[in-house]
């Protein structure tokens, strides 16, 4: 039994040359940077350097898990598990991704950036483990998804765009009803609406309504025309508009 175990055990599998280690780390830097370029060009919170650092860190951690404890590999009381630290990366990267997700009113942004950080961590793990082909294919697919499918998605959903509206309206007026009526007149569907009370500025005795809406645009007219029309309604104090970002 002991002889069989000795024949199975190969200490060389726990060793890695300096050249191979350098190649894996440099490759992680390149692949992570390729994905970070798209986020950087889009002006997102996690850009070029962030993706590089995540990918490099993931690669370094899996290298440590696989080869960092080689001197203990021959100890009969030690059982090495190369996947242990890698598993912690997959769950631990969530805190960084969560930091890129922002909620402003009814708008949630940063989801795609959070997902790109998570997949970059996976790329770092595959590179660190020496799974070169898998990491290359994964990077190619991610770059295609971010660069090309993003444009396709925008083109495909152009007729069903979503916009966020934030309006300040006099509470004592019937402006809110007029706003809803005007939106329906333009054929715009209201998917979400939040109404809040807020005291007027400069110590006025009256109050304002803060109205946040998410609307779907299923028409060919320019959205600017709708904003101008809403701004002309009596009792509407201010309007802010913005689209969804990924």
UniProtKB/TrEMBL annotation:
Keywords: Cell membrane, Membrane, Transmembrane, Transmembrane helix
Membrane topology per record: Multi-pass membrane protein
Entry annotated with the keyword Coiled coil: no
Recorded superkingdom: Bacteria
Main location: membrane
Species lineage: Bacteria, Bacillati, Bacillota, Bacilli, Bacillales
InterPro entries: MgtC/SapB/SrpB/YhiD_fam, MgtC_SapB_SrpB_YhiD_N
Organism, scientific name: Paenibacillus lignilyticus
Record protein name field: MgtC/SapB family protein
The MgtC/SapB/SrpB/YhiD N-terminal domain, residue ranges: 25-154
Family, as annotated: Belongs to the MgtC/SapB family.
